[in-house]
Amino acid sequence: xxxxxxxxxxxxxxxxxxxxxxxxxxxxxxxxxxxxxxxxxxxxxxxxxxxxxxxxxxxxxxxxxxxxxxxxxxxxxxxxxxxxxxxxxxxxxxxxxxxxxxxxxxxxxxxxxxxxxxxxxxxxxxxxxxxxxxxxxxxxxxxxxxxxxxxxxxxxxxxxxxxxxxxxxxxxxxxxxxxxxxxxxxxxxxxxxxxxxxxxxxxxxxxxxxxxxxxxxxxxxxxxxxxxxxxxxxxxxxxxxxxxxxxxxxxxxxxxxxxxxxxx
Length: 264
Hints:
The protein is α+β, with helices and mostly antiparallel strands and 264 residues long. The protein is built from eight helices and 17 strands. 26% of the residues lie in helices and 29% in strands. It is elongated.
C-alpha cells in the first residue's frame, strides 16, 4: 500500500477529489479509503491525507474517478436546531443528514448557528464558495429577527457606523424596528460581513435577547417560499446573470478544459 506522504506540494486530498466528483462525501471517502477500495496510479492507498494534483489518477473499486460535475449552486432552508457542519461529535443532526445521499458532498457558503434558520447556499465548487464568502464580494445578507426587550430607533440607526463589542469590531449594520409586540420586537437587519454570531452579540450589547433569527437573503438569492428542509437548484442562467460572466464562467471553462484533456 502507498503510505500517506510526509510532505506534499500537491493541491488536494484524494477524498476531496472524490467528493468534488460527486461520488460521495469526504467522510464517506475516508471510509472507502480505509476499506482499501481506493487506488492512486493503480496502487491501493490506506490514508485519507494522501494528496494529488490530478483526479484522473484515482480509481474507486477499479473504476476511474468520474469527471467533476458542472458547477452548481443550491438554495437550502435550514431549520432551527440543525447544525451547519459535516459531523457533530455530540451526535446532533446536521443539514447533511437532511440531504439526499448524492447531495451530501456539497459545500456550504457561510453558516448559520444552531438556533438560526433560513437560507443557506450550497455548491459543488469550493472555489465558488470561497468567492461568495469573501468580503470583497460585498453581498448583503438580510435577516428577520425577533428579540426580547425594547430598543429605540436611534440606537439602531447608530449601528450604520459600525460598533465594537467586547473588543470585536463589526462593520456597518442596517437595522430597522418593524414592530413591538409586548415583550418582543421584530427587526429587519442587513449586513455584509456576517461574523460569527454577529447579530446576537450586537443586539445583546444593546440590551436585546434574540429568540428567533431568520436569514431571508444572501446577496441576490432569496429564501422565498422554500419550506424548511427543502433544497432547490439555482438555474445556470440565473447564476450567470447574478455572478457575472467572469466569475461564473471561470469555473465552467476549467471543467470543460479538464473534460477535453480527459477525452484526448
